[in-house]
Specification:
This protein has 448 residues and is α/β, with parallel strands linked by helices. 24% of the residues lie in helices and 26% in strands. The chain folds into 3 domains: 26-102, Sandwich (Immunoglobulin-like), CATH 2.60.40; 105-379, Rossmann fold (3-Layer(aba) Sandwich); 385-447, no CATH class. The protein is globular.
């Protein structure tokens, strides 16, 4: 045999030997890594890949679970329910190799997703320098899915890594997600893990699973399209399910308490079709994360551009806001109203910089509904019913706390009462459907 041929043979043999060794190594998805937070009080899946038939054990917090990799090399165990723990602990996975994941906490885990208003970072938001400097929260951990990627089929391997929240790591994370998690951490006094998966300018359809579309009869055509995808089907950022497949599915079925969602601008021309898509999104994610009670809280679109002076209204994002409200018929969901949070001096900015109040309002819902703090009012007043008495309309509201007031919101300051203020932007119509602005108190009476 010639020397050159022998060298090629030896190189090939070494490559095969190396490949066999690598194939035998236990591997983990990126979302299972050092510095992570595991979800308390729920079974916790730990999964990965190994050589077919390889015995794998997982040890954590006094538990050791064992399994064997299947014929396809996949393995999974589920840790029994864990108690919250802010003391760093190691998690060990053993197969033919051994992996030790350090600095693991147990607490509450949430995914933060949507388009640009969720993707919007702390460093681009209000009071950025002060907020970043004050973000030294070692019991908050951040996992950001990098890049903007799509795929026609659900992917198992993703990208990203957990980091400890601090001034050197927080600035690029979702501002809404961070302020949401910061409040949960403060109120619950347990570690919090936040997973960011966002893409500006995207519609709701690419984030929705095939199973989600199939769960809503009105979306059967979209489900049929997604079901027809093949591995080589060309998809992009607007293709149904394509972003979910690449940027969310690799995270499943990581145990978590819920999701927060800020999206809708790119579906802004829709009405009830968005209502159906919201049902599909929530249904699909609950199935994918194997949690039928996954909390799901979204942001109703903030004010954008100048207010409409026509009392008939119905323009701009009014219809999609109505669809977002109607979707509250999904159990264990909530909606943070943001209509007052845009900058009055820059009404054409589609990205309001006040993300602190958005995150705080989402957390208010979670604290009230998911964590049972019923002394908190979950949201601002919501229309309940009305009655016409003579020339006056009596309107009743839910969620009014200690009462209603005419208020004014200025930047990060608490909403202030406007003494003797006029209640604006209420319009009424008779049987002739001619809309006119209502004047309080002569035509509108509020009650609770």
């Amino acid at each position: 045999m010639k020397v050159s041929s022998l060298l090629r043979f030896l190189a090939s043999l070494a490559s095969l030997t190396l490949s066999a060794t690598l194939a035998a190594d236990v591997k983990l998805p990126p979302v299972i890594g050092k510095d992570m937070v595991l979800q308390r009080d729920l079974p916790v899946p730990i999964w990965g890949w190994a050589e077919a038939g390889e015995e794998v054990s997982v040890s954590f917090a006094g538990q050791t679970k064992e399994t064997k990799a299947g014929a396809d090399g996949k393995w999974m165990i589920k840790l029994d329910k864990l108690k919250a723990n802010a003391k760093a602990t190691n998690l060990t996975i053993k197969g033919k190799n051994e992996i030790t994941l350090e600095n693991i906490l147990v607490g509450e885990v949430w995914i933060c997703s949507g388009q640009s208003n969720m993707e919007w970072s702390i460093r681009a938001s209000m009071n950025a320098q002060e907020e970043i400097a004050a973000s030294d929260h070692p019991h908050i951990r951040l996992f950001n899915v990098p890049g903007h990627t799509t795929h026609p089929k659900p992917q198992e391997q993703g990208k990203g890594n957990w980091v400890v929240c601090g001034p050197k790591t927080s600035s690029g994370f979702s501002a809404v997600g961070y302020y949401f998690g910061r409040r949960l951490h403060k109120e619950l006094k347990v570690p919090v893990g936040l997973i960011g998966s966002n893409w500006g300018g995207t519609r709701i359809e690419p984030w929705t699973t095939l199973a989600g579309f199939e769960s809503v009869p009105e979306l059967a055509d979209i489900a049929k399209k997604v079901k027809g995808y093949k591995a080589d089907t060309r998809v992009g950022g607007s293709s149904p399910s394509a972003i979910y497949n690449s940027m969310v599915h690799p995270l499943t079925p990581f145990a978590m308490r819920g999701a927060i969602w800020y999206q809708g601008e790119s579906n802004g021309g829709e009405h009830m079709s968005y209502y159906h898509k919201k049902h599909a999104l929530v249904n699909g994610w609950r199935k994918a994360f194997q949690n039928k009670d996954l909390g799901f809280y979204w942001v109703q679109l903030a004010n954008f551009r100048q207010p409409n002076k026509n009392p008939a209204g119905g323009d701009g994002w009014a219809k999609i806001r109505e669809a977002q409200t109607k979707a509250l018929d999904i159990p264990h969901t909530g909606m943070a109203v943001a209509i007052d949070l845009a900058d009055a001096h820059n009404p054409n900015d589609i990205h309001p910089r006040n993300k602190q109040d958005v995150g705080g309002r989402l957390a208010q819902w979670a604290l009230h509904q998911t964590y049972g703090k019923k002394d908190l009012v979950p949201t601002g007043p919501r229309y309940k019913s009305h009655k016409v008495k003579g020339n006056t309309v009596h309107i009743s509201f839910d969620h009014v706390g200690k009462g209603l007031m005419v208020g004014k919101k200025t930047k990060l300051e608490p909403t202030a009462e406007v003494k003797d203020g006029n209640l604006e932007h209420f319009s009424i119509a008779g049987e002739d459907k001619k809309w006119v602005w209502a004047k309080r108190p002569s035509q509108v009476t509020l009650s609770w």
